[in-house]
Amino acid sequence: MSEKEQKQTSELTPEEAKKKKRKKIILIICIIVLLIIAAIVIYLLKKPKDVMTKENYKQIMEEMEHEVEEGYFETYMNREWTFPDGTSETTDAVLGNSPNNRKPIRCEVLLADTNEVIFSTDVLPVGTEVPPFKLDVDLDAGTYNAVCMVYLLDEEEDGTYTDYSNAGFNLTITVEN
Description:
alpha+beta; 7 strands
């Protein structure tokens, strides 16, 4: 303590010193309680960032689009493919890489029950569509449940591609004869 504080403390009676000390403690406790109350009020009034409201809808959608843009992609395809027979070109299958994408894709079609690959594409650049095609496997007449796996590709420095992201789409293949 400084000399001035010592003089003031020495001039106080022991009872006055206790009262002064008690006031300081009460003041400190009040300040702490007020800080805690203020923190609780701020916490309760603050809306969580991910709650969508009418006011922040557009902002959240823009943030989501920016955040997921790199790993997501669009493809266009129909989900019912017809082949006159197991060795002929399709009459109606559509499969393409959307012009909205930033990366090329490749596709594999697998039979749902066996996971046998019955068709695969080469690399499809952005904005291209697979021309009419034949299956890689001669299927008997019938209807088949299949999955079209679409792989988003990353181009490596050496010109090769690696799978970056993928998605599967159910489809029905009909072989007529």
